[in-house]
Amino acid sequence: MLLDTASLYYRAYFGVPDSVKAPDGTPVNAVRGLLDFIGRLVQDHRPDDLVACMDADWRPHWRVELIPSYKAHRVAEETATGPDVEETPDTLAPQVPVIEAALDAFGIARVGVAGYEADDVIGTLTTRATGPVDIVTGDRDLYQLVDDARQRRVLYPLKGVGSLQVTDEAWLREKYGVDGPGYADLALLRGDPSDGLPGVPGVGEKTAAKLLDAYGNLAGILAAVDDPKSKLTPTQRKRLDESRPYLAVAPKVVRVASDVPLPAFDAALPRVPKHPETVDALAHQWGLGGAVSRLSSALRP
Description:
It is a single chain. By secondary structure, the protein is α/β, with parallel strands linked by helices. Helix content is 46%, strand content 10%. The protein has 13 helices and eight strands. The protein has helices spanning 5-15, 29-45, 61-66, 96-106, 118-128, 169-176, 180-190, 205-215, 218-226, 234-242, 244-254, 276-286, 289-299; strands at residues 2-4, 51-53, 75-77, 85-86, 109-111, 133-136, 152-159, 163-167. A six-stranded mixed β-sheet has the order 5-2-1-6-7-8, sandwiched between helices. The protein has a two-stranded antiparallel sheet with strand order 3-4. α2 packs parallel to α4 (96-106) and α7 crosses α11. The longest helix is centred in the first third of the chain and has 17 residues, at 29-45. It is elongated.
């Protein structure tokens, strides 16, 4: 089981009241919510391995070089030497180090790699895995990793993590008319304002799905642009042709990396907290007793 950690703690932050606070009055709604999410996931799915995948760089420079608008609207501060600072709610940012400390204290593998997003870590671990993989995320971009033959699916939270949409190829085809890899092509064609991806003008989700159904993939669509006998409308042909510079680079931006140089780590789900004294100290300092107890109980065989 691979967790898109930032996606889940953002959901926890907005889903758990900010009246949930530490003894000193600091909000800990994202911390408590995430620990409860993980406890529920472990309880319901009993994964052998669990990895909390992290955004070491939420807006990698190599993606921005290809498409400068990539996540540009979410930049709070540009930095010359490291990742740009992302716009984050004032009461969420201080909770992230507490989340990281709690995961480490429990012994839950936490993996992030400089220059890459959590999506890329997930893509690489999914590619390397020899058994079934469940990806837990509120980010539809990871639908591109769905693969029934290799038992790869996405668990998309609808309400907390007690209600999960199980995303497999049948669901993708019914909803979007594409398979996993086809979802990446659909996403880059239609664009995504939340990620600053412009897409092809005039090509929305339905048109993108029809083009992919007719021509197979992005390469097939571009071949149809060059084929005067293809059934593209004059407007579609013109807009796709004018979008070639974008379409030449968008696949590398939209598709998750599968070759991230990962550090060594132990993915095995812990059965007891790795550092129980640290867990107890964090629970006391941040008022997390209930969430810590529930996660500890879920981890026990």
